[in-house]
């Protein structure tokens, strides 16, 4: 019969202390931003399937307009917020990039927003976050929602109207 002998010292198996999960208005607004983005993407996805206008689709249109208004309100609040924690600066930068995508009216403006998103993601990868930090997850979630929104816009893009040399401009 085998004798149980631990091979790992007790100190190595103790629970690691979690980094303090800070609370700031910017973090709360960024969480609201992710919720608003998810709702807006879902509403736009519902409307994407509508190929002709029918009064039966009015609730979907109303839902999409309300989701867009909520998203823009959260983005405006995030743009006006002040940083209270070192990680807030990165969240505020991603908020600026998030503002650029749904408010873009041209391909160049959308491209600028995508470049800001990519820059923020690179900074997030280079920044050391404490064990248990929610910052990388929040930023990744916002990035996925914004790219889903861009892809929904691209599905309605007419390639015949695309300027010469503009292929691949969006992503």
TrEMBL record:
<protein>
    <submittedName>
        <fullName>Uncharacterized protein</fullName>
    </submittedName>
</protein>
